[in-house]
Amino acid sequence: xxxxxxxxxxxxxxxxxxxxxxxxxxxxxxxxxxxxxxxxxxxxxxxxxxxxxxxxxxxxxxxxxxxxxxxxxxxxxxxxxxxxxxxxxxxxxxxxxxxxxxxxxxxxxxxxxxxxxxxxxxxxxxxxxxxxxxxxxxxxxxxxxxxxxxxxxxxxxxxxxxxxxxxxxxxxxxxxxxxxxxxxxxx
Length: 187
Known about the structure:
Blueprint: H1 11-16, E1 23-26, H2 32-39, E2 44-48, H3 51-61, E3 72-76, E4 92-98, H4 106-112, E5 113-124, H5 145-149, E6 154-166, E7 173-184
Parallel strand pairs: 1-2, 1-4, 2-3, 4-5
Antiparallel strand pairs: 5-7, 6-7
């Protein structure tokens, strides 16, 4: 599966920002978005709860000599543990989150992005159940919620609505209700 088209809008910003810290691919799953950045020579920390997901990403980045192409590192973490703040004390040039929502992380995400760094976020809205999963309201953004959370940042791109999305390797598409944002943290 290809990377999110939202990254096309972000890649130039990341290259221009003179990245000092890596980009966090939070809840990376198969790593499709972080792999795109690594292929653009942007350092990425792939983070996910599933060891198997991180192993798949690691395999995708391993050359025939068994070495991992840099710039990539791996972090197995459960972002939903009670009384744990996994991003506190961490620092990233950008944090990207795709198709994942755990509201208690928003403040940690905002704190972990370096001044002048970026958040790239895309996930489903409350309109998604008409098109399929997810249907649990805990995993669906309210209208305007993402823009409100980052209203004190410089909004570079914001979208909320119905989108056609590629759903499989056969280039079949489906409608999805999503919200997206690219925002830059004030310096």
